[in-house]
Each structure stands twice: as C-alpha cells, then as structure tokens.
Specification:
The structure holds 2 protein chains of 2 kinds.
Chain A: E1 3-7, E2 11-12, E3 18-25, E4 33-39, E5 45-51, E6 58-60, E7 68-73, E8 78-83, E9 92-99, E10 103-106, E11 110-114
Parallel strand pairs in A: 2-11
Antiparallel strand pairs in A: 1-3, 3-8, 4-5, 4-9, 5-6, 7-8, 9-10, 9-11
Chain B: E1 4-7, E2 10-13, E3 18-25, E4 33-38, E5 45-49, E6 53-54, E7 62-67, E8 70-76, E9 84-90, E10 97-98, E11 102-106
C-alpha cells in the first residue's frame, strides 16, 4: 500500500523558516517524481513544485520560487520542503504527492500557519 | 499560467441522478487532465487521468471526456458517498494548475 506521511507543520512567524518532511512507503521511492501541493483555508489547491527521481532537477511555481526548496533522500525514502521567508499567504495544508504523469497518491497533509 | 475554469462551483443532486462538472483550460492541454475527489477532512483522491482513463478501484459510474479546451467529469447515478469536492488539474505545462473546485451535495 502506498503511503506518504508528512510531518513538520507548525505555527511560524512571517519571515521565518520551516522544513517539512514526507516519508514514503509501499513503492520504490527512487523511481518516482514527487510533488508538493498546498490547499489554502478557502480550499483552493496550488501546485508548489516537483523533483525528479534522483533529485537533480526541480521545477517550482512562480509564487514560491526562490523561497522554497524541494529535495529528497532516496536512501531514507524521504521528501523535503524547505520554506524560507514565509508569508501569511503561505498558510495552508501542505500535501506530499507522487507524480506519474499525473498525481496518483496524496499524503494526509500537514498544516502550516504563518502568523505573528 | 494556464487558467482552469471549473463549473459549477456547487451543485446538489438526488440519489441516482446524473451530474456533470466542466473544466475549461485557457489553452489546449492535450488531454493532460486529471480529476480528483476530496471528501470532507480527507486528502484528494485520483478519479480520472489523461482526461478519460479511470483510476484503478474507482467506480465505473465516474467517467471523463473532452479534448482541447473543454473537459468534463460525469457521475452516472449519484450515490451518497459521492458527496464531496471535485477538482480538475492540468499537467501539460508548468506551473501545473487546478480548477477552483465543485462542491457536490446530496439533495
């Protein structure tokens, strides 16, 4: 069974940093691209970015480019999202997802709240 | 960015009724479109990919169709468990974008 389990969500002040993790199981982690998607309190979904199988290539949404960094550790079957200089608009549920031409599996999500 | 115009924003249907949700990309996306269902308090789940291919395990009452700049999701015979939010997403061009969602309620 494919499982994606996020962690690291919390309350963070504007301008602060946070690192999210996602541990995967139930599939060969190193064979798949992985994406981060977030969902705002108003329920809109926004694609944040993705990373290729060996971590050598990433693509990002313009809204977070240069503030967020996606990385992975295939030996630990773990995906990361490093968030820097966060803003109130970054308040959302963050989902780790598996990509195979389309997103076929989603984690349960982790809440990030940006507020002073 | 490709804008995904999804309609209606909400609808209610009776048990057994057939419902349709539409997604209009602002440019052609070559059938690189997926539909997701999100039940209250849960993560989205894949229903349809490549515009019309049914994900394993998804009931056959769900179907997808369309091409170019017009796509739709159809539920043939509303069931109680179909009450949820539905989203479309294009993976044709970066950044991948989602529709605003459709809230489907049981009448």
């Amino acid at each position: 069974e494919v499982q994606l389990v996020e962690s690291g969500g919390s309350l963070v002040q504007p301008g602060g940093s946070l690192k999210l993790s996602c541990v995967a199981s139930g599939f060969t982690f190193s064979n798949y691209w992985l994406d981060w998607v977030r969902q705002t309190p108003g329920k809109s979904l926004e694609w944040i970015g993705e990373i290729n199988t060996d971590g050598s290539k990433t693509n990002y949404a313009p809204s977070i480019k240069d503030r967020f960094t996606i990385s992975r550790d295939n030996a630990k079957s773990t995906l990361y999202l490093q968030m820097s200089n966060v803003k109130s608009d970054d308040t959302a549920i963050y989902y780790c997802t598996r990509y195979y031409g389309y997103i076929d599996y989603w984690g349960q999500g982790v809440m990030v709240t940006v507020s002073s | 960015d490709i804008q995904m115009t999804q309609s209606p924003a909400s609808l209610s249907a009776s048990l057994g009724e057939t419902v349709s949700i539409e997604c209009l990309p602002s440019e052609g996306i070559s059938n690189d479109l997926a539909w997701y269902q999100q039940k209250s308090g849960k993560s989205p789940q894949l229903l349809i990919y490549a515009a019309s291919r049914l994900q394993d395990g998804v009931p056959s009452r769900f179907s997808g169709s369309g091409s170019g700049t017009r796509y739709s999701l159809k539920i043939s015979g509303m069931q109680r468990e179909d009450e949820a939010d539905y989203f479309c997403q294009q993976s044709y061009k970066y950044p991948y974008t989602f529709g605003a969602g459709t809230k489907l309620e049981l009448k």
